[in-house]
Amino acid sequence: MAAARRQEYKDILDVMALESEGSSDSDSSDEDLDVLFLEAAFPEPRSLGPRLNIEDVSEVDCEQMFRFQKNDMYRLMEALEIPDSYTSDQGVIFSGMECLMILLRRLSYPNRLCDLVSTFGISEPELSMAFKMSVIAPNGIIAHLFGPIEGRRHDAFMLGESNLIPLLEGIVKPNGDPYVLYGDPAYGISKHIISPFRGAHLTEPEKNFNAHMSNVRVCVEWGFGKITQYFAYLDFKRNLKVLLQPIGKYYMVGALLINCHTCLYDSVTGVYFGLGPPSLETCLSNN
């Protein structure tokens, strides 16, 4: 922005110099150019326009802008226990719906805050105040999310750090059987985790097992893909700065909202396994 503004000043000064050289009687032109230069150097603050009201957004625009249907926005707000109003540390007051809309719009597309000013009728500094705040189940819900972890770390290290095994040890099926996850070979085999058979001389049943489970494992990629498909901001690497932004928290917020989306509109994973998601309220009740 600063470079563009400097270029504007240079262009105006060049025009002023040419005008003064080519005309000996140019008082009025000089005055016009002076006014033009001053307006460029000290622009009037642009009008923000009215603040966006969810009731003024059409059904189609709501789903395109926020990824949720209009009649589900208030339900989502209530299920997430977003308060009716929020006051920033600087005293700026937002409605709860404004906060939800700003968050969803920011995540849904790699917008800059200045791009959202005209949409929401809120200044860029005020927008920043509002914004700053996996295991995939067969029904499409992201049941466990941990990270981020440095890419150089081994998968077994990440499994140990995630506390996933103790969580699985604490829950059982109604008949007493344990829950079992299928994971990468690096996770090994235990009471709660199975992985592909390894070796050069596998039996036919072992080969068939590996082939079938390999097809099933793709659902994990569907889960990750849905997050970045609906919330492209999380996949826009130029906008995400490690150590300067809480990128891990951004991703967890995106995963939580995708779970909400799955509860309301289902998912490819749920359709693949023939399992419907829980209700939005059940999913967020943490029971």
UniProtKB/TrEMBL annotation:
Residues 135-259 form the DDE Tnp4 domain. GO terms for molecular function: metal ion binding. Its cofactor is a divalent metal cation. InterPro entries: HARBI1_dom. Keywords: Metal-binding. It comes from the Eukaryota. It comes from Paramuricea clavata (Red gorgonian). PANTHER family: PX DOMAIN-CONTAINING PROTEIN. This is DDE Tnp4 domain-containing protein. Pfam families: DDE_Tnp_4 (PF13359).
